[in-house]
Automatic annotation (TrEMBL):
PANTHER family the UniProt entry points to: GLYOXALASE/BLEOMYCIN RESISTANCE PROTEIN/DIOXYGENASE (PTHR36437), GLYOXALASE_BLEOMYCIN RESISTANCE PROTEIN_DIOXYGENASE (PTHR36437:SF2)
Highest taxon of source: Bacteria
Species of origin: Lederbergia galactosidilytica
Protein name: Glyoxalase
Coiled-coil regions, chain positions: none
Residues covered by the VOC domain: 2-127
Amino acid sequence: MRIIVTSIFVEDQDKALAFYTEKLGFVKKQDVPAGAYRWITLVSPDDQNGTELVLEPNEHPAVKEYQEKLFADGIPVTMFGVADIHKEHERLVEKGVKFTLKPKEMGGVTIAVFDDTCGNLLQIIQQ
C-alpha cells in the first residue's frame, strides 16, 4: 500500500492553484470539472508520477471550522521536505511568501512555517 493522493482544503481553488504552482513550484497534473468545483491535483516537478496533492474546496462547515482553528493555533496542515531550507526560505521570501516561523533547528531537523494565503499554514523541513 502507498499514498497516491492527499488533500489540502483551500478557500479558493484558483488562488490556491496560482500560489502552489507559481510560488511553491508544484506542477498541475489534473484540473477537471467536479460539480460546482474542480478536481485539481499537483505533483512535485521532481516526481511527476508521485503522490498527488488535491486542492480541495473547504465548503463543508466542519472543514472550515477545522481549518480556522488549526490556523489560529499556528498548526501547519502538512509538511513538505526540502534539500536546503535556508535557500528555499530565501527563494520563497523573494516570491512574497509570508513566514510565521523562519528556519529553526529542532532536534536534528530544521523547520519553517508559512501562510499559503488560502487558509493554511504549511511547514517545510530539512532532515
